[in-house]
Amino acid sequence: MTLMNVLVDFARTGRIGPLRCGMPLAEAEDLLGPGRPHPAIQLIPDIEGYPYAWDCLELSVTRRLVSGISISLRPGSTTRLPSLVLPDSEAYPSTVLREDLLAALDAVDCRHDVNDRLTFGGQSSILTHPANVCAVFFTPHRDEQVPRRERLYLGAIHKHATASDADARA
Predict the structure, then answer these.
(1) Burial class (CB in 10 A: 0-12, 13-18, 19+), 113
(2) Which residue, 77, 115, 81, 67, is CA-closest to 7?
(3) Bridge partners of residue 156, in order along the sequence
(4) Which of 96, 120, 144, 149 is least enclosed by beta carbons within 10 angstroms?
């Protein structure tokens, strides 16, 4: 299993292993261990929509249910993910070119379209179908060490709960 496998499977299915939108936070924590809550949650324990983090994996929570899943990457550095997500890994290089992810999605027949809402300036975004996973690509920041600065690199891939996610947990 590689980071690219995890990204493609997430884009195609909307799940990361057993993690899915609509699942109870308690179930996710049983699988992943206790998450690191966002500081807002630490101040106001029942505040909604803020993430719990496990290294580069974040789960947003609303009404104690997972309402969003995201993986954040920094081109030129490494990505750490829980072993449930990426077994037998300490860290993986997190430099993922836009064209490499798109080619991997095409190879498994995962449809994707440009996401006009998040495509502007120095960034580009796609939305996968039918999973509705959004991948956002950026030109690298000044401090990110990448071989080709003019290229677009994956910065985040995320999914937010939909009505069908609510139906799936019922």
Answers:
(1) exposed
(2) 81
(3) 72, 136
(4) 120
State how far the Cα of 40 lies from the Cα of 44, in Å rounded to an integer. 6
Tokens of 90: 């300490």
pLDDT, tens digit only, all 170 positions of the chain:
789 999 999 999 999 999 999 999 889 989 998 877 755 565 556 666 667 888 899 998 888 899 999 999 988 888 888 888 887 766 788 889 999 999 999 999 999 999 999 988 889 999 999 999 999 999 887 777 777 777 888 999 999 987 665 545 44
Beta strands 57-62 and 65-72, pairing class? antiparallel
Q: Are 116 and 124 in contact (CB under 8 A)?
A: no
Q: Which of 132, 113, 116 is nearest to 10 (CA)?
A: 132
pTM for this one?
A: 0.87
Q: Is the peptide bond before 130 cis (omega within 30 degrees of 0)?
A: yes
Q: How far is CA 68 from the centre of its chain?
A: 9
Residue 100: how many other CB atoms lie within 10 Å: 15
